[in-house]
UniProtKB/TrEMBL annotation:
InterPro entries named in the record: HmuY
Signal peptide annotation: 1-18
Record organism: Spirosoma liriopis
Keywords: Signal
CDD domains: HmuY
Protein name, per record: HmuY family protein
Length: 459
């Protein structure tokens, strides 16, 4: 019996060793830029340049970047963070990470003719990382029209409840991340006077009959419910989920101060947003060019005031109750096409629409003039879609035309491969966009979706 057991043990070990010997080696881990070209127009002061690796590194890995400016001088007209030494940037990919980055900043009051460029070249990478094919990136100090690239969106930490919203400018190969919970109210810069709640956190609000903030106390909140739940009535507490500015919880701000009521705001707890105390607010017009926000905690007898000027370069200007100041959220309206984020939307309970918070929504910049269409591969494949197909593509101004339709979280989990999207930016450039991955089931990482896009028609 002992001989039989020994023989079986030897056979099992031999089999395991054979399996180990036959396991294919991991592919090379390469580092490269997200794109070969990036635009930085006059309105953009700072850009983040990212380098991506095929997979995370086990130990901190050094990367060097050679910097070659043309027509622009380091130190006086632009800088980098970290700073260069002898025209070389030294970066580190932290252990457990698959990316690194640096910042490029223009000097204040800098006037350029648009011909200036900076060439960045990966000089070396610490073993075992190898330098990939997209080892050079040229930054042009003007708007560009990208021919397309691949992007991994930086949702930050949180996975399915990623903390960032990521705004993407297809033509400039650029993405800008902003914390979803970094703002509370958005103030419209268009001709109307509109104020939006933060539907990225599921914020809700309700009007009081009073128009004097100092007369509102905790007693005014007795019996009030700002919990959305899965009830159709919850949709009345949030801004129109399709983005219709005529259907905001806070109506158009009146030129007659007495008509502007006090609102109680629940700052939202959706998408893993920590609960915060309710706030009472009142908004007035500040002449014809802006707003005056009054706000305070429910139990506070006095209130703070913030002035918000309109800026036509932006869809909205944003205010945070935490800082009591304007905060940067979305880029200028001409500098983004789509945003990936978690946000309040709606679903059906079988009879009625009810509020529902969706992760991984992709919204288009309808206020900035962007339109889009969903195309099924049964009509035409992504690779085959060409300029000749544009005439039969129905572009929509529905900001949720992409929405969460591009991925599945039940059944066959992952990116839906039976569809892609066509996006027409405000200038008229047309791009086809397909999502590559977004979760472990399709080879991706939740909170950091990958997408590919290509230019179909250049204006």
């Amino acid at each position: 019996m002992k001989k039989v057991f020994a023989f079986l043990l030897f056979a099992a070990v031999s089999t395991l060793n054979a399996c180990k010997e036959s396991d294919p080696p991991l592919p090379d881990n390469v580092v490269q830029f997200e794109s070969a070209e990036q635009g930085m127009d006059a309105a953009t002061k700072e850009s983040t340049i990212k380098l991506k690796l095929s997979r995370a590194v086990d130990a901190a890995t050094p990367i060097t970047i050679q910097v070659a400016p043309t027509g622009i001088t380091y130190g006086t007209q632009f800088t980098t963070t970290p700073a260069t030494t002898s025209n070389t940037l030294s970066l580190t990919v932290p252990a457990g990470s698959s990316e690194t980055s640096f910042k490029l900043t223009k000097a204040d009051n800098l006037f350029l003719n648009g011909a200036e460029t900076i060439g960045f070249t990966i000089g070396s990478a610490g073993s075992p990382v190898l330098v990939g094919t997209t080892n050079k990136q040229t930054v042009k100090f003007t708007s560009i029209v990208s021919s397309g690239t691949n992007l991994t969106l930086d949702g930050g930490t949180g996975g399915a409840s990623a903390v960032n919203a990521v705004f993407v400018d297809l033509s400039n190969n650029a993405q800008n991340a902003a914390k979803r919970a970094s703002w509370d109210l958005g103030f419209y810069s268009g001709t109307d006077f509109r104020v939006i709640l933060n539907n990225m956190t599921g914020a809700s609000a309700i009007a009081l009959a009073k128009n004097d903030l100092t007369q509102v106390t905790a007693a005014d909140t007795v019996g009030l419910s700002l919990t959305l739940g899965f009830d159709p009535s919850g949709l009345k507490l949030v801004d129109d989920v399709t983005g219709d500015l005529t259907k905001t919880v806070i109506p158009a701000i009146s030129a007659t101060d007495a008509d502007n009521k006090v609102y109680i705001i629940n700052r939202g707890t959706s998408g893993a947003t920590p609960a915060k105390g309710w706030v009472k607010i009142r908004v007035l017009r500040n002449g014809t060019t802006g707003y005056t926000l009054q706000y305070a905690g429910i139990k506070e007898a006095t209130f703070k005031t913030v002035s918000i000027p309109k800026d036509n370069a932006y869809n909205f200007r944003y205010v945070s109750f935490d800082s009591g100041a304007l905060v940067d959220v979305e880029p200028a309206k001409a500098r983004w096409d789509i945003v990936w984020t978690g946000a309040m939307y709606k679903t059906s309970d079988g009879t009625n629409d009810i509020p529902y918070y969706f992760s991984d929504q992709v919204l288009i910049n309808t206020l900035g003039g962007v339109t889009a269409a969903e195309v099924t591969t049964s009509t035409v494949s992504y690779d085959a879609y060409a300029e000749s197909n544009i005439a039969t593509t129905t572009f929509k101004s529905d900001r949720s035309v992409i929405g969460a339709n591009w991925r599945a979280t039940t059944g066959t989990v992952g990116v839906k491969t039976d569809r892609f999207y066509v996006v027409k930016d405000a200038a008229g450039n047309v791009y086809k966009v397909k999502f590559v991955s977004f979760t472990t089931q399709d080879g991706g990482e939740r909170g950091k979706p990958k997408l590919e896009y290509k230019l179909v028609k250049k204006v």
